[in-house]
Amino acid sequence: MTQRCQVTGAVPRMGRNVSHSQRRTPRRFSPNIQSKRYFVPSLGRTVRLRVSARGIRIIDQRGIESVVAEIRSRGERV
After folding, report:
1. DSSP code of 12?
2. From 2.30.30.100, 1.10.155.10, 2.30.170.40, 3.30.200.20, which CATH number describes the 13-74 domain?
3. 28-42: b or e for each residue (b if 16 or more CB lie within 10 Å)?
4. Residue 13 in contact with residue 2, Cβ under 8 Å?
5. Which helix H or strand E contains 54, and what residues bound it?
6. pTM of the complete model
7. CA–CA separation, 48 vs 58, rounded Å?
């Protein structure tokens, strides 16, 4: 399964490690993806989302109802 946040759309980014001697080697910056279950009253059931830590904060601020509505409007299955 891909490392992608269903709320923010965060995906892994590429970068470089730089050593003391300035040698550059490729590395990958992965988002902090968590699998969380939320109860959605309008659906009457729980939904399982793969969200980043920032996505969890967005859900806390805006509410699960509006976030799930936005995800469903994009055509993703929840």
Report:
1. -
2. 2.30.170.40
3. eeebebeebebeeee
4. no
5. helix 53-62
6. 0.86
7. 16
Tokens of residue 59, six digits: 């859900």
Under 8 Å CB-to-CB from 32, ≥6 apart: which residues? 52, 53
pLDDT (tens place) for every residue of the chain, 78 residues total? 689 999 999 999 999 999 999 999 999 999 999 999 999 999 999 999 999 999 999 999 999 999 999 999 999 988
Angstrom distance (rounded) from CA 16 to CA 4: 21
Per DSSP, the three-state class of 77 is coil
Read off the DSSP letter of residue 57.
H
